[in-house]
Each structure stands twice: as structure tokens, then as C-alpha cells.
Amino acid sequence: MKTITINGREMAYQEAGKGKTIILIHGFCGSAKYWEKVMPLLTDFHVIAIELRGHGLTSFNGESFLIEDLAKDIHFFLNKKELADVYMFGHSLGGYVTLAFADLFPETLAGFGLIHSTAYPDTEQGKEGRLKSIKKIQDVGIVEFVDGLIPNLFSDDSIHTKKEEVEKAKEIGYETDAIAAMETLSAMRKRIDRNHIIANSEVPVLLVKGTKDKVVPLDRVTSANGKHITVELLETGHMSMVEDSQALVIAVEKFVKNK
């Protein structure tokens, strides 16, 4: 892991390879470790996996923030690293951040993708669920919260066949700062509809769906059609980067190389 200072905070990241730059952004209660099976397979590219505020080894100062603030962190990071024309792929929460980035800083992107994510805002039921999650963290702490969260991210098959990966995901989640997790839930609850960002994008867009995803329904992943949009359907749950990393890498490689 490396770190870079952003507005007085330390942002942690992993970096490897040469070629076109691919930025990977993890999901809620994840970290750069989510991409450990993916990065070694992307041998033809310069790959950076970034850790968001309070996740993994990235510091958190206790302040409230919005999804847009996380996107601004990444923009600051890219400027400091003198990187542009990058391909950005976000998993779940990371997809919300990617969309906010595409909204605020479209000139920096050569293309972007959502991995098991959505451009829709939370439903009223979803917003209520965020509040319940915040209360659960307050009541029982991050460890018990993560123990309840992680199994739902995997397909029913993977829960039984990939027990080691499920436990590893829990251990990654335990590293999340509890206050940062609550602030992230609040930020996700407040996020806006960004379907127009996908529909009107001037750069290519990749949408990755999981047929067994229990978190983001298939019809919430795809909201627009167009020659600039590529849709990939994987036989996984919400965690294709660990459930079938090779299939995800093939989708990402094909997208970046053909654009």
C-alpha cells in the first residue's frame, strides 16, 4: 500500500503495471483488498485501487461528507499523480462515486463503468434501510454490522462454495471506521439520480450486472441504451471481483481495449 496526502488526510492506494490507467473504487465497507484477485490479471494496464475515506488505511477526520466529496478526493488524487484520460470502475458505493466523478470531472475520463451499482437514487424503502443501518452500527458496532452485511453480498451458491472469500470480506469490513461507515450510509442516502450521466455520456460506459445479485436488481443497473453503453451479464452475486474475478477482468479488458 502507498499513501498520498489530500487536504490534510492520508489516502491509501495500491498501484501496479503500465499502460492505460484503470482506477478501481471499492464498495461500502470494502477496501483496495477487494481487488486483490483482479489487479494481477490486468497485466496490460496501469492499475490503481483507491481506498475511500475511513475505509482500509485511508484516514477520516470525523466530518460529514457527500458522495461528491469522495469524487473530489479522487480528482485531487489524479491531479497530484498527474493522471488524465483514465478508465474508472466503481463497485457498488464505488459506482456512485464514479458517477459523481463523471458528472463533475468528465474531461478526466476516457471511459467509466459501474460494477454491480446503479445510477438511481435510493428508494424511500432504501433510505429507511440506510437509517436502520446507521442505528445498528451505533447499537452493536462495526464488527456485528459487517457480519450481517457481508453474506448478503454473495450469491447463495458462493456463501457455501467460497467460505474463505466471505470471511476475508468480513475481515476487510472490520477495518472500516465506524463513524465513517455511518457518514457513508448518510451520503449514499442523499445521493441524486444520475441516470442522465450514463445516457448522455460522451465517453464509453460499461455496466456490469450479476444475475444472482441480491443487492442491486438487474433492472436498476441498466437505465439507458446507446452505442456508447456496453452491458455485461455475469453469473455472480454482488461480488464478482471475488466470486468470478476472471469473468470480471475479461469484461473490463475487452471494454478498455476496444475503446
From TrEMBL:
Pfam families: Abhydrolase_1. GO terms for molecular function: hydrolase activity. Keywords: Hydrolase. SUPFAM superfamilies: alpha/beta-Hydrolases (SSF53474). It comes from the Bacteria. GO terms for cellular component: membrane. This is Alpha/beta hydrolase.
